[in-house]
Task: structure prediction
Amino acid sequence: MALQKDALVILGPRRHPPVPARAANTHTSIAIQTALGFSTLDSDDYVEAAQKLRPDIVFGMADYEHLKRPGVKRLEKMGDRSLAWTQAMVAGLKDNPDISVDTALFAPVLPIEADQQSYYLDALEEELINYVSGLVVYNAASVDAIPAKMSHLPRVAMTRMYGPHDLLDQIALGIDIFLPSFVGEVTDAGLALTFAFPSPESPSSGQLLVLGINMWPEMHAADLSPLLKDCTCYTCRKHHRAYIRHLLDAKEMLAWVLLQIHNHHVMDVFFDNVRKSMSNGTFEHSREVFEKSYERELPASTGQGPR
Result:
């Protein structure tokens, strides 16, 4: 496979972004969507998958239902079930010494109030802390519920994000690792990302900068400039807007490949500069300037994606 040697393999029980399932979770399983439709994932089967696949990171199963507000009785079950499933995963990894060292378990933090999952979090802190390498957050606000003894653990956000503003907001809340699905969605829409962090100072004209460019309009047909000035990605070094627009118009898959290369490069530079700003203590200031400089929403697409 054409993958970098240090690529991480992460095993999770649900797809991301999640799709609301029709069925309800049970004491032993969660409802999920698969390539063949809706189904259920049993806790024992998930543990067995972790044992056989030997991922670098495995996300613990969480008893929550996407876009459904839990009732009072439901809240009581969520912590109990999530704890039982986490304990089962810990036991499964311990029973297989060949993978226990290599596979890191990230335990879920439920998207409910801290007092509503206090029993579950207390058990994580007191009984399982030595077996948990990180935390999976389904609501960024839930970081406030993380016990003090586990506050040093890395946090993965399985939340829906729609652009760089959402990323910066969640970084400010204490999230460490993200799954920004909007990057692929932007590429499918035929958009090229153009934002930078730190951003230029707020425009003197008062007009906010755009986060990206819609490459479908005819105006790009004769434009020989790169997608983004001074960008060092392969796409911007080797090709121009007119070529990308031609490929889109011809429905050539290469158009989306080149856009994805560019968009991933923009995100790589974005996160690299976020890390630098945190190291030198300028993150909050740069975040405020970014908020004032760029539009909140990505531009709308006027074309049809590859699928």
User: Anything to note?
Assistant: Residues 253-279 form the longest helix (27 residues). The mean pLDDT is 91.
